[in-house]
User: Fold these one by one.
Assistant:
Number 1:
Amino acid sequence: MNFKNPKTLIPQIITVASLVSIIAYFAFNAQVNMGNRGISFGYGFLSQEASFDIGFSLIDYDGSHSYARAFLVGLLNTILVSAIGIFFATLIGVTVGIGRLSSNYLIAKAAEIYVEIFRNIPLLLQIFFWYFAALRALPLPVDSINFYDISFLNVKGWYVPKFIWTNFSLFFSSLIVAIISIIFVLKYAKKKRDEFGKQVPALYISLAILFGLPFLTFLIGGVTLFFQIPELAQLSKTIYVYKGGVSIIPELISLALALSMYTATFIAENVRAGILGVNKGQKEAAASIGLTKGQILKLVVMPQALRIIIPPTTNQYLNLTKNSSLAAAIAYPDLVLVFAGTALMQTGRAIEIISITMFTYLALSLSISLFMNWYNKKMAIKEK
Amino acid sequence: MIKSIKTWILVVLASSLLVACGQGGGGSGSKKSKTLDNTKKAGYVKCGVSQGLPGFSNADASGNWTGVDVDVCRAVAAAVLGDADKVKYTPLSAKERFTALTSGEIDVLSRNTTWTLSRDADIGLTFVGVNFYDGQGFMVRKNSGINSVNDFKNGISACTNTGTTTELNMRDFFNSKNIKYEPIAFEKADEVVQAYDAGRCDTYTTDKSGLAAQRTKLSAPDDHKVLPETISKEPLGPVVRQGDAVWEDIVRWSLNVMIEAEEYGITSSNASSLKDSDNPQIKRLVGSEGELGAAFGLDNEWSLRIIEQVGNYGESYKKHIADTGILPIRGPNALWNDPNLKGGLLYVPPAR
């Protein structure tokens, strides 16, 4: 941009000025109209008591907490389902994407059918399908599907043992220390290999640190861990529920399932495009120096394909995060359902709440973008 | 380059023009009713209703809306435009309803909405009356062994709708009983019914009228029952925007006329024949005495049209709620002085 040339500077100023005046116009208009209708404006409600309960929360919450806390509960639930969704979407997507290029006809065809089906059905319908299909298919708590007497699956959720820790913080810090040391080990191993051509058994050392250090805290740090296994409790003649464990609610399971199955199809296509985008000569050259098929994929094709795959996949991650707001349809208490739904209704503060929600999604998307851009840069061709 | 500068100048001019025009908007407190004028100009009443609640506001296969909430809008249309059918219905979710009203998308919200202090005072709305006295209840499976709310125990799961007072009442109720419960709140009523039907939750809680209506949508309605207790007061009524006193009065008295007509035994079939009744109160209601309509800027037959075209409250209740089997017993929705039905709460100020 050339700021010295008035011919280019003036349009810039005009753009900014008109943008500001358009925003000012809407803000002013909203203010006048709200004033006329006796609607007050302010964010003070955030500290008021929310007085509604949320069925699923990662942090301690009940109705006596504030609206701000309810917002946090919704945000964490959104992040949770997005993170699970992104993890499984990537896993399925990469597998299916590679599968589509398989020389095995059955695998390639199955992957293709999967992509064509799940890509072309609207996501909301898929969410409803998984949710109500799951609810209809799963048994009542008395007839739960039993996994070795420690975990139970029924229409009210998937019940898993609860971890009861003492001195959890010590265990957690040992885990952090272990991860940091592993990063150093890997760096050291890479340096050794680059400088001296010496192979350090980094994998075994890393595994030893990862398991050894936390294990030590059990032996000498006084950390203990018990499993509380869920138990069936009878509430009335026919009503039963599991108590004592952790319940993964069917809303979370079906939403995460629908989001990852749907987004995986797009990621699979990105992966396929990325692999096909790598020059055929690269594969032939790798094969000619005697690398196995797996080695060719891992060492030659994938590093180059990733440069093509990452940018469009970032878009899919953003889509998945935003699509998670469809949660409201099946009662998964995400940000939209809890905050832009219930809290909005109870307070009636539409402009305040919608603006907060919009900025939160913006911030969430920008964080994912930033991370993916960083990863993309890391993967880019480095000229040496 | 010059050309593009010209374009930019145009953009600036256009946007400043917008700012200049944008200073109006919204009704003010003058004596004339802007909403009434706009309604007459448009030729229909803009009415917000539910997305489908049998007995209250429900559309049939050909798109005709019926129900006691719908009848309030029809009464307003009959009074203002002379034809009860001149109503444009907008189906709204619980979440959308107040924004639709305050933003002017609709002029009357008649959508089983509970009158509460915070809604009345805080968000630019005015409740004009009560057309149905309701209360929150619980529905359970008949074979569950639960016969009263006192049989609920820790760990019970309850399905309901979001964005309604039921979520708050539910918490107050379970807290007062010291019961830990799992709330599952859906955005639309149809999903609540499906989830409850599938066994996701042990009980379904909402207004009792709603429970009675939604029960008909279950796969086996006879396997379910509504518990006898009522855990909250839910006076449901029509709502208007704050700031247009004349319009507010029109909607309020359209409803009141329907209730008072029942009190004096005026029905859609006998209304015109009662024009020369001996009772001056009846004569005022059918428009042959007094100048009641003039106070709102309406003619004197406005109330007669409501009774003739829509019917009195009792007729409306019988047609939509009693005869459809939703709530055959009128309970609190009987007249205060009904000799046959005790416990009625319907008592409106006199139209005189």
Number 2:
Amino acid sequence: MAVKIVDLVKEFNGLKAVNGISLEIEEGELFGFLGPNGAGKTTTISILATLLKPTKGKAFVNGYDVVKEAEKVRRSIGIVFQDPSLDDQLTARENLDIHGRLYHMKKDERRKKIKEVLEMVDLIDRKDSLVKTFSGGMKRRLEIARGLMHSPKILFLDEPTLGLDPQTRRHIWDYIKKLNKEGVTILLTTHYMEEADFLANRVAIIDKGKIVAEGNPSQLKDAIGGDVVKIVCNKPKELQNLLSGIEVKNVEGTLMLNVQRAEEVIPKIFNISNKNGIEIKSITYKEPTLEDVFLHYTGRSYREEEGSEKDRIKMYMRARRR
Amino acid sequence: MIFDIYAIYLREMIRLTRSRVRLITTIVMPLLWLGVIGSAFNSAFRITMPVDFISFLTPGIMIMTMVFTGVISGITTVFDREFGFLKEMLVAPVKRESILIGKMMGGVTQAILQGIIIFILGLLMGVKIISSSIPIAIFGMLLTMLLVSMAFVSFGLAVASKMSSMEGFQMVMNFMIQPMIFLSGAFYPTSMLPGWLKGAVKLNPLTYGVDAMRYFFLGMNEFPIFADLSILAIFSVILIIIGGYLFRKS
């Protein structure tokens, strides 16, 4: 068991940032914490990384108690923080070297590992450049490399692509997938739906300090029911009446259907309309996203949660610093 | 533990070699003091004192530079906190004490280096060590420098632990450090001050640092050297304890 959390609670001045989370993560998993800003993801990861002490409950990482065996936990984990934590006055190699020293790695071991991790994130050519000359994506990659320096059993990634452009994000995703294939257990937090969907083989959706849903992303999406089909036609009311047996909503002239298998239902709709002289102007369907899953379990739309003005300013500053 | 301290110290030293601009700017002020103020008052001073003004001023400027450097290097922990590197250290399997000691040693090294640079500048300007034994003079100066820099690096750490931004820094410099330096006798003999200020001078721990430095360098002192060093040592230990405590707590 890579991670085991039992009834974890963390209060800040009476406010429950984490409110009774229980969770188990197996070795080799790529697990995602998904939730809006302030849902308690970073707090949970900070507790697992021994930076915060839980108010109540227990947490074990690689079998070690995060409170009683903090030093053993620290030795067995790698972490990439949400905020940049490199020393940008140092070169890439020096950052990794200091890290290796802090984890008591021998000289030869450090040298070997520095080469290995820098090659993995394609930064070997820049090993002697000062970190302050790096782009945001390069810094992120170097941080991931640093997290792996001491060969941890599990890597924590707190919002690994926050503030990065889409192309760089894609790049980082590839590295994360590659790592996991090589056997590193990964626990990542993200508030990007696509990220959790693309990367994680299991997600826990967190809202207001609680896990509201947990499972494989596609299973979660399947669980809330099939596809959403939208139809625009010249006689919506007639079509609605003809489509008996299917739940159809008429939203300002656009018909919305919730069906199990859209690809099988759509031809039938065409047949019915053709027979009855109804002209279909457009028909679209989409599979439910994790967004719909969030909506389903919390009763709130995810976008509304996308942070206050203050969070946005914070994000902006963070992006500038990269 | 030793390895951890060394790793953190090593980082500080690498940073030091990268910040040449900072090293140079911290020498400009002392140079102006020695070169301009020192020269201007040189002849006038000769009448009342056994040494010229540049000689008198050099130990004071050494102390001033070390105090500034020490406080600033202590305060760089704020940068570490703001720019996240502190987290990298906190999540590593090292003791908090190692981080603290490593950072302190880094600051002390930097401060003493600055002190030595001013010392050499003084010698180049014609200041002579006035002592019966040069080795004792050098050893004594190094000891004084060590005590003063330890005290003020800890002071910087304490301030940094209580401060959440760099804005408080100017306040601390203007309202605490500057008055301490002005009232320490670094720039003039304290006997020239009116009585009510003499009390403040005696309460100022820095006075004893300047006095000790001047004793070892020029063989002139207002207080017994034993008293100077004891007061400095006590002051330094108190600040290390406060700095260490606040740093751990933050």
